[in-house]
Amino acid sequence: MKELRILSTTAILGYGFPIESFQAGMERKPDVIAVDAGSTDPGPYYLGAGISFTDPNAVKRDLEIMIPAGLENKVPVIIGSAGGSGGRPHVELTLNIIKEIAKEKKLNFKLAIIQSEFDKDFIKAELKKGNVTPLAPAKPITEKDVDESVRIVAQMGEEPFIKALESGADVILAGRSYDPSVFASLAVKNGFDKGLALHLGKILECAAITCLPGSGSDCMFGYLREDGFILEPLSPLRKCTTLSVAAHTLYEKTNPYILPGPGGALNLHDTKFTQVDDNKVHVAGTKFVPTDEYFVKLEGVRKVGYRTISCAAIKDPIMISKIDDIVVNVKKRVEDNFKHYGMKFFLDFKIYGKNGVMSMFKGIEGETGDELLIIIEAVADTQQHADTICGFARSTMLHYGYEGRISTAGNLAFPFSPSDCHVGEVFEFNVYHLLKVADPVSLFPIEYINF
Fold it and tell me: Model-level pTM?
């Protein structure tokens, strides 16, 4: 096999794609149709809550186009990081959608289901063996951290996908996955260069985001050859350029030359990007350098409480000029009011129009707008306690008397009634570590279903 063709349908399953782009991809006779379904970008909530950040109806729409096309053309359909976070409940959510599609369309195929969530006892045993190490800036974890975790998953490499392909799977539904492995697995199985295959997968996992203009809701096509690979957008509205492809290669990476993953890293020191024609780019020279031992990345979350928020706006220029002092004094007032009630809570004021986006970074100061949006956030051990803290902070700021205040009514304008909103459970990442494994396949059990 001198060339392997890969159709990437969308940046994340459920984000959608134009049917015209998909049909253009199928006309190019792909050897595999693949899609990444997950990300940690939406934060820890979805992993902890066991739900998807993409809508089930949108996921079904994408799959009921992809799966029949794959079966009709006798090419595998591969889905990685099912349900967004790749835990057992996330895989189950997507499995139920696939079952619906198979029943409604009367499809016959072999489905492989690969799990990536671990039992806590297994992680604690590996911790005792010294096989769990922090991935900076995370700190070492203890058995207590593992016990507090609601769910722990690991990013599988291409090896479990290859086993499923060798077993004749027509469709592969996998839990949490290293994004490029979803796209590179068939190529590595068929003997193509692993470095080139993973680099191509690194770009295809975000589909047409690598184009100009970029889109997370459009298809992308890759041609993998012995000397490199070619990227081609499938919409006439988009182009690939050496700049756009090189830029996306650096996406989400701290080192421009070394891109780590399960079992090794991509070395880009000799990588070259060449414009083939107006909308295609050829990439060559990327090498895969294996590590002495095989590691996979663990992701785990723990529950920290419940959240209530209130959104309010400020227009008064006098209050805006004193907003930092007002926030400090409102916090003090809240703490003083409830200091004898034994409530443990977190209270924050996110001020948009004054470093609301960049406030997590110290020492960054920008211009303050003439209007501010304030999001009052309270997190506590129960939803009722979160309601209490948020409500008191909101009413205190609403009527807070500051020097130079002219108004005798409220300081805040509320866009919604009720003004306070239950956000619900709150999770935080507490496991962001590497796990040393002896066998990257047996770690991820595979189940087969014949429809």
Answer: 0.93
